[in-house]
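Can anyone check this?
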Amino acid sequence: MQTIKLKLKTKSRIDMAIIAINIYNHICGIKLNSTQTTVLAYFMVYGFSKKTKDLILRSKILNNPISIDNILSKLRKLGLVIKSEVGERTNRGIDIMCEGLRVDIKDSLGFIIKLENV
């Protein structure tokens, strides 16, 4: 098997997450606009919390919490955000990343993509 190696430097963990999301979405045939991708990147880096939603609003990526909820709804429909297992004391799960994007964004991130001609 031949390999292609690419090295890319990013300015921030958000930029790294955006690139990872774009690669994943391209391979899976999922289309997101840049705002949706950026919002997903924030949740990927900082987790699903009220603090992350506040950060998205403070960073002026979106103007109101309803917009965040609308994007989260679309991301759930596309399968990029899923609900965790229902807890014993709650009647619904919490949002988590889909398995393909559930990575810890730190200093570096590698990809293994196997392309087969069938």
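Reply from J.R.: I decoded it. The mean pLDDT is 88.
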